[in-house]
Amino acid sequence: MHTFFNIPLTIQLDFIDDILYATPKRDKICPCGGRRHLHHKKEQDIRHSYTYEYGTITIRLTMYYERCQTCHVTTRHDGGLDVIQKTTANYRKLVTTVAKTHSLGYAARQFDVPKATIQGWRVKELI
Ligand SMILES: [Zn+2]
């Protein structure tokens, strides 16, 4: 882990012009043993962390869309950050923890995330 951002070491971090670029290492071999072909790559700003000093920490994450040439399964590779709705699992956990320890309304204001969205994340967490 990169200690202060809770990001796996397999993701390269570059801080350029106030933007934190996160570039995961591609896994070119599918679990079936076939080779994955990269058909699309995109950068997206994803909410990842929060500090009282800086507020929400956003990373510019490169995500890969790959298709296995053997089993033809298409996958999106996000470096294990589990991106949903432009947030990482780390961020969703932060927000839902604050909602639990304080209140839903407090977390919604603090993180500027709709209450319903936070409730959805809490439900997913229970499954
Ligand atoms: Zn495969």
From TrEMBL:
Naturally occurring in which organism (per UniProt): Kurthia gibsonii
Designated name of the protein: Transposase
